[in-house]
Give the backbone structure.
Amino acid sequence: MTSATVSRIEAGPQPALENCYHCGESVPAGTHLSLHIDGQERAMCCPGCRAVAQLICDNDLAHFYQQRTAYNDRPTSEQGNTDDYRIYDDPEVLKTFSEANANGEQVAYFLLGGVTCAACTWLIEHSLNRCAGVISACVNLQQSKLSVCFQPEHIQVRQIFSEVRALGYQVRPFQQHAQREQLARENRDELRRLGVAGLGMMQVGMFAIALHAGDLQGIDHNHQGLLRWTSLLVASFVVLYASRPFFINAWRHALRRTLVMDLPVSLAIGLAWLASVFATLTGSGQVYFDSVVMFTFFLLLGRFLERKARLDQDTGWLQAQDALPDAVSVRKGNHWATLPRTDVAVGDQILIAAGDAVPIDALVSKGRSAVREDAFNGEHQPRTVAEGDTVFAGTINIESSLQARVLCTYRDSRLAELQRSIDRGQAHKPALVRLADRVASWFIAAILLISMITWLIWHQLAPEQAFWITLSVLVISCPCALALATPAALASAAGALRRRGIIIRTEDALESLSQSRHIIFDKTGTLTKAELAIDRVVTLGNCPERQVLAIAAALQAHSRHPISKAFKSLTMANGVDQVHYNVGAGLQGKQGNKTYRMGSESFCRVLAPNLPPAPSTDLYWVALCGDRQPLAWIGLCDKLRPEATDTVRQSIADGFSVELLTGDSSGNGALLAHNLGLHHYACGLSPEQKMAHVKALQQSGTVVTMVGDGLNDAPVLSLADVSFAVADAADLARAQADFVLYGDDLNLIHVAHEKARQCRRVMRQNISWALTYNACAIPLAAMGFVPPWLAAVGMSASSLFVVLNSLRLNRENNSGAGQVDHG
Amino acid sequence: MDSLYLLVPIAMAFCAITIKLLLWAINNGQYDDMDKEAWRILAEDEFSSQSEESDSQRESF
């Protein structure tokens, strides 16, 4: 998702002819849908987009299109049907995501999907506010959370669901989640601290100017006292309130005998504050309240910005079971009752409609269909199931409805096991020793040593000055620039990558990436597009290829099987009707009095016994035949992404050793590796085996980068030191990845790597600058040459330098990106 | 310069009120969604005036 900072898209004034006005995807050849919006005819790619756009226009909300800053997501399936959401009207279910307020109204919370920009929030809020019975609707864009206050006697919650669904957004109940709430609380805490530090800085700064001026031109002792006491008051509040996390963090790490940047930070803040308090009480020496408060503010600001850049669109709380349907049809006596998923018991008979996700591991008792199990093996080709086969929670039933007997509870299902693997992966992810923390440890030692020497020497020379000079050494050495060096660089780099379509989700991702030398790619969906395309047509009769494909397209238009997508863009033959779909076998249809069959070899042989066997290459072959007349073998394959070869080559050039790990056990993996020139590959791996492989690499000291897309990649993405999820990855895979590539281009990996290395360079520069500054200033302070105002100016200047240097990362760099400059 | 004894406490009082207000606003959730509000403040005018117009038109029928 792109944020409001992205410039307005070009859809308004000059609609690209071949792109859908609603979702921005290219309009398939042969589709002629359009809609009159804002005085112009706008092309639409599919009936779904058209329906949504129509609804928006009908409600006088067309203005939305000029205001949005990103295209909408393409609506996934047919329009929201209120019946689908009937389950949520159940008071017990409703209670899990809503609460009653004092006025007898109900406040329900929903989690939205596909909210791409701020204008979407406007669209949803306005549409809902017009519904009778809705008191107020409010979308939180950062959390993708919709809160609706409504009167239960006037509107039912399922109507709210279908209203939002009809606008083309996905919607599901917003379940309370500890991690998510914790994050929201932390956000508020940080903002409060930042605000208090900022306001305090202005006040103390004002008094500090008077005090510094007083130092230069003389000041009445009483006035100085007043200003010092007021500063003391404000600064103490800021130190106790806003700087607390630094102290807590430093203390926590100190207990574990690890040194982090927060330790010198806390030392500097604490000592400078204590000394200033002492100076104020005794009316002697110097006060450093302004430095203390300013230091706190800038540090908090740097960290706040870095965190905000990272946590926008956070999905870390996503769980595997979120993708499962909330409502399940269960057999009760002679009819089917709809129950909440959590109420389904072992042994119940359930009904899984075509197109639905399987809610729970179950044994098929009636029906025949195909299930897509990419959650477990990453493959998009379905497995045919019939009576006696087991279907697993989280897989998708594609072809026709199934009746099945529930085998276990969610806790014992294969999907729950996957979720546990993810949690294990997170726990075992190796910790990175950050550059800043490494510097911090010997920085502290050096400062303490120098202070001690200073004190000893001055104690010999002039005992009455020893204390104040030692203190000024400590204040001068305040690691402000050093502490800002990393967050400033990281925030800046994150901003730049975001504009290129790369979202960074974890704190250490950039540092880890710059150190990684080993990259692992998943096959299906990552290097390939995960959809079948026609590769070869072998005609068997004298029917020309074009006619064969036209008949095939007309037949496939009636199929839900994934291979039908390959025929979608072809021109269909006219007059093909009475198409009948045989689950697990193929399609049969009639054109005039001619019968055609398309599908498996045995299915077609019934009609044309003289059908030769499929040409033996590693393609997915489908036969087409007429009455006693084989027409063609059509070979399909999962096409490589166009940029995949480049990406692999570029990764090798960047110094990575490249490896391919795939869950696909057919020969395709080896073939692909061979085509890409990869020597290291492994096929047919389960998620657990992939994890074991990565863990072994990590134990040998390798920093591993993993690129993946599927639910089955989620555990290994969570374990790898650095992980990328591609654009259309499963939600859970995105939630585990350190980087999400929203721009649909694998070359972005190179861009991210380049930026990570650049970021590390800038961090090193920042740190060396901060250390150089300290190395020059400390001897001067130790000799007693630096008055406090100069110390304050010097400190601010060095921090400013660090921030400005970091901002260079935010620029588009064409030199670094080299010849690969997509985006 | 004795006015300082009055003016500095007044400044502090204002500062205290500002901090109080800020904390109230944050606790009240007004800063929870900075992306949306940043956009809305710029867009709402032309946006809402148009839709309110059409609302009122509809009501008048």
Q: What stands out?
A: The two ends of chain A are 15 Å apart (CA to CA). Residues 178-217 of chain A form the longest helix (40 residues).
